[in-house]
Amino acid sequence: MSKKNIDNYIDTELNKFKFNKTSLGYRYLKIAIKYGIQDDLLIENLINRLYEKIEKELMIDKKRIKWNIEKSIETMFINTDIKYVTNYFYIEEYEKVTPKLFITTIVENYFR
């Protein structure tokens, strides 16, 4: 798929959830998913590969990137219908959607 199609795919998938689209976490999440699609080895280790790549590009500490993505996903989890989230990620209601689960699922769905 072309670059534009990747961006459209990411927007389409993220629009299925209730994110605060003006937050830094949402911005970093979109970048993380895009990089994961372009190089799936990056999602094997989010902190030392994926977040580090974002850190180098944006000149922002990877701990800050991680924190913002986590908070964005937590907010989405609170605001999005729980049944939709559990069906999308194949989890139980008591389970947490982690950045690893979220990013990996979106990236893997791209290749289906």
How does this model look, in words?
The chain has one domain (3-110): Orthogonal Bundle (Arc Repressor Mutant, subunit A), CATH 1.10.10.10. The protein is globular, with a radius of gyration of 13 Å. It has six helices and no strands. It has 112 residues and is an all-alpha fold. The model has no long low-confidence stretch (mean pLDDT 95).
How would you summarize what this structure contains?
The protein contains six helices and no strands.
- Could you tell me the strand content as a percent range? under 5%
Note the main sheet: none
At CATH level 2, the architecture is: Orthogonal Bundle
Helix-strand sequence: HHHHHH
Mean pLDDT value: 95
Radius of gyration: 13 Å
What's the shape? Answer: globular
Number of helices: 6
Give the % helix.
55-70%
Ends apart, CA distance between termini: 12 Å
Q: Which stretches are low in confidence, meaning pLDDT under 50 for 5 or more residues running?
A: none
Text of the CATH class:
Mainly Alpha
CATH fold descriptor: Arc Repressor Mutant, subunit A
Give the class from helix and strand content and strand pairing. mainly alpha
Task: Find the CATH superfamily.
Answer: Winged helix-like DNA-binding domain superfamily/Winged helix DNA-binding domain
Number of domains: 1
Descriptors for this entry?
single chain, 112 residues, mainly alpha, Arc Repressor Mutant, subunit A, 70% helix
